Amino acid sequence: MALSLTVNGDRVASTADPAAPLVDILREELHLTGAKPVCREGFCGACMVLIDGKPTPSCLTPAALADGCEIQTVEGLATPGQLNRIQAALDASDAVQCGMCFPGMVVSLTHLLTASPDATREDIRAALTGNICRCTGYERIIDATLLALATK
Amino acid sequence: MIPGSPMQRVPAAAHNAASSIHVAHSLANALDALSEWGSAGAVFAGGTWIMRSPIRHEPLREHYVAIGRIAELGAVRIGTDVVEIGPVVTHAALAAALADLPEFNVLAAAAGRSANPAIRAMATIGGNLATPGFAAADCVPALLCLDAEIEVAGREGRERMKLEHFLQIRSTLAPGRLVTQIVVPRSERKTAHARLPLRKAGDYPVAIVSFSVSVDAAGRVQAARIAVGSVEPVARRWERLEAALIGRQLDAEGAARTATELAEEFVGRDGVDAPAWYRVSVLPSLVRRAAAAALGA
C-alpha cells in the first residue's frame, strides 16, 4: 500500500517498504539529500528532520510511522532564495564548515528558536546534545544561535 | 499527490524488509492484529532499537504492530497510592510528568537525561522494558529501585507481575501479549539516579546506579532498594548493598566504601564503549553520587 507523506508542503506517495528508514526515502526517492545517513543510530543528528514540528532522527523513523505526517527537511525551512533566521546567523558568524552535520544542526536550531525563544547558552548546548559536529567545536554555532535569538 | 519511485536499496546499510507495520488505534485492535500474526508478528516496541537491527545483523520481524498512537496506553496517572504509566509515554513526557514529585527523582532523571532530546521525544518507557538486548536502558534500574510492577495483556486477559519477574520472562512472552501499564507505588523515600556516560550527555551510560532509601528521623536507613544497570546484560538489584545500609546512618562516603567491598559480585559485560572491569570499577563512585544526591533531595 502506498504511503502518503507531506514533505516541505508537497504531498508525496511512496511504495517503500514499511520499515524503510525515512532518511532513505527522502534521499533516494525524493532526492532531498540535506539529511545525511551518517550513524544510523540516532546519535549524530545529521539526518534530523521536523516531523509534525518536532526534531526527529529520520534514520530511526520507519516509513509506516511517517505516513500522514508533515515532514520538513532542511531544504524546506526557508523561503526559496532566502535564509531563515538561524541560517543567516550561522552564515554571519562564519560557523559553517564541512556541511555533514549542518543540515541537522539547522533543523534542530530552527526548532529551538521557535520553541525556546529565551534559550540560554546552556539551553542551546542541551538542545544540541544529539547533533554532533567534528569541525567547529560548537562555540561558533552557539554564538550564532544567541545572535539569532537576539535578532527577533 | 506526487508519485514517488520505488526506493533504491542502500548497500552501505541495507535493511531487511518487514512486510507490514500495522498502526493500531486501540488496544483491542492491536491485540487482534498480534493474535492474527502469531509468532510472525511483534509489537513495534523499542522502535529506536528495532530500526538498528541491520547494524546488529539481526533480521526484522515479518509483521509489526505500532502502538504509539493508542491513547489509552499514553497517559501518566498520578494517584494517591500509585503512579500508573502507560507504555507509550515518551521519556520526555515522563520526565515532565514527574518533575514535581521528589520521591520519583530517580525516574525523572532516568527519563530526562537518557540519550538526547530528539530520542527522548520518541523513545518510550515500554520500549526500554521491551528490549532485552539493550543493557544500558536508564529506566529499567530506576523502575527496579521503585519496586515497579508490570501489567501484561493479551486477548485472554491481563496479569500483573513484579518487574524482576518480567525481566526474566520478557524474551519469551507468548505472541499476542504486550505491556499495557507500569505501576509504581508511592511512598516517603529519597531517590536518585547516577549514570556515567563517556561524554557529559548523549552517550549510553557505562554504568548506572538507581538509588531509593527511606530514613528515620535520626537519618538511619530503614529501607533501601538499589539497582545497577548497564554493568551486566540485565539490570538487577544490589541486595547485599541494600542489606548493608539498613540501620546505618546514610552517608555518601560510607556507602561508597561498602560498595567497594561488595562490587566483586558483579560480572561486567565487555562492550565497544567500555571493558567489563571498568563498568564494575566505577560502581562505588556512582553509589557515592547517588547517595549524596538522595541525601540532598
UniProtKB/TrEMBL annotation, chain A:
SUPFAM superfamilies: 2Fe-2S ferredoxin-like, CO dehydrogenase ISP C-domain like
A matching Pfam family: Fer2
Transmembrane segments: none
Keyword presence, Metal-binding: yes
Cross-referenced PROSITE patterns: 2FE2S_FER_1, 2FE2S_FER_2
InterPro entries: 2Fe-2S-bd, 2Fe-2S-bd_dom_sf, 2Fe-2S_ferredoxin-like_sf, 2Fe-2S_ferredoxin-type, 2Fe2S_fd_BS, Beta-grasp_dom_sf, Diverse_Oxidoreductases
Entry keyword set: 2Fe-2S, Iron, Iron-sulfur, Metal-binding, Oxidoreductase
2Fe-2S ferredoxin-type domain location: 1-77
Protein known as: (2Fe-2S)-binding protein
Source species: Bradyrhizobium iriomotense
Lineage, top ranks: Bacteria, Pseudomonadati, Pseudomonadota, Alphaproteobacteria, Hyphomicrobiales
UniProtKB/TrEMBL annotation, chain B:
Keywords tagged on the record: FAD, Flavoprotein, Oxidoreductase
Alphabetical list of SMART domains matching this protein: CO_deh_flav_C (SM01092)
FAD-binding PCMH-type domain sequence ranges: 7-189
InterPro entries noted in UniProt: CO_DH_flav_C, CO_DH_flav_C_dom_sf, Diverse_Substr_Oxidored, FAD-bd_PCMH, FAD-bd_PCMH-like_sf, FAD-bd_PCMH_sub2, Mopterin_DH_FAD-bd
Pfam families: CO_deh_flav_C (PF03450), FAD_binding_5 (PF00941)
Protein name, UniProt field: Molybdopterin dehydrogenase
Highest taxon of source: Bacteria
The keyword Oxidoreductase is annotated on this UniProt entry: yes
